[in-house]
């Protein structure tokens, strides 16, 4: 199934909020688009729709008289639903439950299932079929309209009642669904593959309704903040500079609060997801052990102190020779070189802010200004003062840029 086709199917799901089952021609389930708005029951669609060589019924009902639509396109079969063509009152729901099963233990769950069914008139269903046909074929017609009213009762699919006793009703609770969506999203970000992220977003269920507040805009902003916190935590766990990540997170939070339209909130959220995926792309290529990640984070948090290898060795219970050897093996250069590299990188920000070079040297705990100037020139190629006067004119990139190219931007 092409990415274009996935996007079309997802757009139908997003607009209607209806679950969509995607089968191949052998009736193997390839994808399921669901949200936290509509539950689904354990129907065996394959036995019902795939058990004969006859054409699929385009509309059929379930055991509780809820309605489903089937739509076939070369290579795929879509089952869309459930929904109802009647507005269900409490009495009607109770009648359906009693007529279907005497097992009172499952009535509350089935009642909730029926109460949350979307309502579409049969006329709406016809228009929906026309829209589907146009999306997939470019033809704005519906060959089924005349039989529409008869097909609902003619085709009825049943589910195994025994499955209801062990069915996981929590799967479609808002909290569980939101957790599942966030886990899928973070897994994509963790891989650091932008192309895969963009392709997978077409098939990733994303109909999340944030916890309600009086204002939808505030609800979406609150949920975006939660996503930003999780993205930041993931980046830090992957070995990124804690300060840099918090600054990046805060940048998106500030940008978020400036927005007054829902579409702009979504845009900020998507930008942040892509940005963090790009950051993690670099970490995919250098997978550090937990102790080296911790040492790197320790260095990042102590740039404004005097960092000594002996202190790191004692803090992490590793001998100095082992520290030198392991750090060099995993990162490609010595721990001392990395400490100087990060301090120099930090000094660039201070110099750009206008802080005098001598104060920069003191802030970063260099022995004296001459020591700082020599170290700075070794990495950058020019003196701190020259850099401060013209920070946009730099010599060729240093050897360490091969390992942290994003750090010197």
Automatic annotation (TrEMBL):
Residues 293-390 form the HTH araC/xylS-type domain. This is YSIRK-targeted surface antigen transcriptional regulator. Pfam families: HTH_18. Keywords: DNA-binding, Transcription, Transcription regulation. InterPro entries: Homeodomain-like_sf (IPR009057), HTH_AraC (IPR018060), Tscrpt_reg_HTH_surface_antigen (IPR024022). It comes from the Bacteria. GO terms for molecular function: DNA-binding transcription factor activity; sequence-specific DNA binding. The lineage of its organism: Bacteria, Bacillati, Bacillota, Clostridia, Eubacteriales. It comes from Clostridium porci.
């Amino acid at each position: 199934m092409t990415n274009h086709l996935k996007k079309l199917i997802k757009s139908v799901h997003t607009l209607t909020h209806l679950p969509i089952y995607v089968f191949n021609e052998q009736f193997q389930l390839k994808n399921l688009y669901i949200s936290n708005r509509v539950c689904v029951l354990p129907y065996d669609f394959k036995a019902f729709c795939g058990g004969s060589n006859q054409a699929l019924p385009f509309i059929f009902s379930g055991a509780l008289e809820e309605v489903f639509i089937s739509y076939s396109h070369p290579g795929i079969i879509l089952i869309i639903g459930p929904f109802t063509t009647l507005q269900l009152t409490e009495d009607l729901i109770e009648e359906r439950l009693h007529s279907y099963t005497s097992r009172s233990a499952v009535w509350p769950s089935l009642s909730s299932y029926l109460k949350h069914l979307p309502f579409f008139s049969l006329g709406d269903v016809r228009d929906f079929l026309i829209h589907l046909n146009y999306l997939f074929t470019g033809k704005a017609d519906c060959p089924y309209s005349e039989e529409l009213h008869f097909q609902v009762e003619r085709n009825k699919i049943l589910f195994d009642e025994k499955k209801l006793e062990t069915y996981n009703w929590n799967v479609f609770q808002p909290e569980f669904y939101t957790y599942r969506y966030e886990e899928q999203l973070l897994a994509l970000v963790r891989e650091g593959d932008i192309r895969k992220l963009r392709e997978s977003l077409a098939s990733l269920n994303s109909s999340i309704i944030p916890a309600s507040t009086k204002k939808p805009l505030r609800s979406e902003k609150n949920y975006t903040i939660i996503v930003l916190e999780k993205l930041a935590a993931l980046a830090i766990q992957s070995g990124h500079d804690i300060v840099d990540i918090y600054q990046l997170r805060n940048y998106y939070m500030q940008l978020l609060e400036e927005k007054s339209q829902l579409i702009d909130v979504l845009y900020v959220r998507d930008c942040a997801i892509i940005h963090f995926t790009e950051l993690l792309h670099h970490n995919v290529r250098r997978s550090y052990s937990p102790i080296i990640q911790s040492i790197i984070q320790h260095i990042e948090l102590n740039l404004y102190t005097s960092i000594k290898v002996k202190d790191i060795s004692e803090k992490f219970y590793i001998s100095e020779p082992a520290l030198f050897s392991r750090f060099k093996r995993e990162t490609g250069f010595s721990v001392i070189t990395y400490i100087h590299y990060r301090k120099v990188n930090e000094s660039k920000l201070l110099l750009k802010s206008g802080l005098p070079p001598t104060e920069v040297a003191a802030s970063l705990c260099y022995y004296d200004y001459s020591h700082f100037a020599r170290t700075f020139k070794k990495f950058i190629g020019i003196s701190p003062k020259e850099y401060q006067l013209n920070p946009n004119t730099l010599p060729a990139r240093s050897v360490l840029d091969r390992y942290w190219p994003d750090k010197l931007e």
